[in-house]
């Protein structure tokens, strides 16, 4: 099973978009729980998380959250990111056969303009990170956020595409 972790700050509408994609994965038995890690939101993020049945934490430590996760794999994702069709089956197969981290493929439909892609480092969570729980427990340090954990992680590439969170922010 899989636990989803998202960090947010005043991203109520983005949370709704991402959580709606995760419903089918929960029905399929892939997603066991979702943790929304808040960084001082003043909007309705907590209400959205509560309505979706997520764990909502305002004061959190990554290692404690990872230990509380029910899944043996964690999916780190940004609010507003949307996984595209076929991801559930691919992730189920990947976690059954692998013990290493993976990232989703960039969406072919939503790409940054050419000049904004040149010389740009891709943010560590732009295409999510699927990572085994024991690896997270070994790497997590006090005060670390999800981006800090994902930074520098070598990961396999999945075929399933992800529409990155920046698309939702640009609309």
TrEMBL record:
Record keyword Transferase present: yes
Domain Glycosyltransferase 2-like per the UniProt entry, residue ranges: 3-100
Matches recorded under Pfam families: Glycos_transf_2
InterPro entries with a match to the protein in the record: Glyco_trans_2-like, Nucleotide-diphossugar_trans
Protein name stated in the entry: Glycosyl transferase
GO MF term list: transferase activity
Record keywords: Transferase
């Amino acid at each position: 099973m899989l636990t989803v972790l998202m960090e947010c700050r005043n991203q109520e509408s983005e949370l709704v978009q991402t959580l709606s994609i995760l419903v089918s994965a929960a029905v399929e038995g892939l997603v066991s729980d979702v943790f929304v890690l808040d960084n001082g939101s003043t909007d309705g993020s907590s209400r959205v998380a509560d309505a979706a049945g997520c764990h909502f934490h305002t004061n959190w430590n990554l290692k404690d959250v990872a230990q509380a996760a029910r899944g043996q794999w964690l999916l780190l994702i940004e609010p507003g990111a949307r996984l595209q069709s076929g991801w559930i089956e691919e992730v189920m197969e990947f976690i059954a056969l692998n013990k290493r981290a993976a990232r989703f493929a960039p969406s072919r439909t939503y790409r940054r303009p050419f000049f904004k892609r040149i010389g740009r480092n891709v943010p560590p969570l732009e295409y999510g990170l699927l990572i085994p729980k024991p690896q997270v427990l070994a790497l997590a340090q006090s005060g670390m956020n999800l981006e800090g954990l994902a930074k520098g992680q070598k990961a396999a590439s999945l075929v399933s595409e992800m529409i990155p969170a920046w698309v939702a922010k640009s609309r």
